[in-house]
């Protein structure tokens, strides 16, 4: 069985690229960010302050996140409830960025993520897949893009959904999340030493996909 790890900052296009590659290679796609977002949704619903680590730790044993697949599409369940349609808001994303820094939160999901990699050929994306979750992955990719390009992509995505968006605020949030992810004490966002760097700022989705598939062909 093969495993591919794709890490990178928020808005770099990891999910879009990973889904496309997984379909092309007939791999199972695992979106770890969605798991952290599910936990974040729980914290929001229970009005837990993201700065209150003690309260976060106390809540973790009551949270069960699981993964199902319907027609090849990952479904994230929070204590049995399908929350796929509830975890893509800016509020949930910001909460996930803050709370994923806690050791207990990451430990809650780590075994699930590693167990998934034992069952099939998988492509997993996140912030610390190549450095922490799957350090022995067959291929590690660090996918990034400039903050401006990432903000433009997010702005366009929101506008197309009919959501009012402020470009400057989006870019500011991205820069803040980058800093939070890179400076956290537990499993910070960073490029693994043996990861291939792919900067998608001036690349199309197809070009990024082809580049990563070509890298995988080298390690097969």
Topology:
Elements: E1 3-7, H1 14-25, E2 28-31, H2 32-45, H3 53-59, E3 65-70, E4 73-78, E5 81-82, H4 90-99, H5 103-116, E6 122-126, H6 129-133, E7 139-144, H7 147-160, H8 167-183, E8 196-199, H9 205-219
Keywords: ATP-binding, Cytoplasm, Kinase, Nucleotide-binding, Transferase
Catalytic activity: dCMP + ATP = dCDP + ADP; CMP + ATP = CDP + ADP
Organism: Anaerostipes hadrus
Question: Can you give a write-up of this model?
Answer:
Helix content is 49%, strand content 17%. The longest helix is centred in the last third of the chain and has 17 residues, at 167-183. The chain has a 5-stranded parallel beta sheet. It has a single domain (3-219), classed as P-loop containing nucleotide triphosphate hydrolases (Rossmann fold), CATH 3.40.50.300. It is an alpha/beta fold and 220 residues long. It has 9 helices and 8 strands. Helix 1 packs across helix 9 and helix 2 packs across helix 4 (90-99). The chain is globular, with a radius of gyration of 17 Å. The model has no long low-confidence stretch (mean pLDDT 94).
């Amino acid at each position: 069985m093969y495993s591919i790890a794709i890490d990178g900052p928020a808005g770099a296009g990891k999910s879009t690229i990973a889904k496309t590659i997984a379909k092309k290679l007939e791999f199972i796609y695992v979106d770890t960010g969605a798991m952290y977002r599910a936990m974040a949704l729980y914290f929001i619903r229970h009005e837990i302050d993201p700065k209150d680590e003690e309260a976060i730790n106390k809540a973790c044993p009551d949270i069960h996140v699981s993964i199902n697949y319907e027609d090849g599409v990952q479904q994230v369940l929070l204590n049995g409830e399908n929350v796929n349609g509830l975890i893509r808001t800016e509020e949930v994303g910001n909460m996930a960025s803050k709370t994923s820094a806690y050791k207990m939160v990451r430990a809650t999901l780590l075994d699930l993520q590693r167990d998934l990699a034992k069952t099939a050929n998988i492509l997993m994306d996140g912030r610390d897949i190549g450095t922490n979750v799957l350090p022995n992955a067959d291929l590690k990719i660090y996918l990034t893009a400039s903050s401006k390009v990432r903000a433009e992509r997010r702005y366009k995505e929101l506008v197309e959904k009919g959501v009012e968006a402020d470009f400057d605020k989006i870019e500011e949030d991205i820069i803040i999340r980058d800093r939070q992810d890179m400076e956290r004490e537990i499993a910070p966002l960073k490029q693994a030493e043996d990861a291939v760097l792919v900067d998608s700022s001036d690349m199309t989705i197809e070009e990024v996909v082809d580049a990563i598939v070509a890298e995988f062909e080298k390690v097969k």
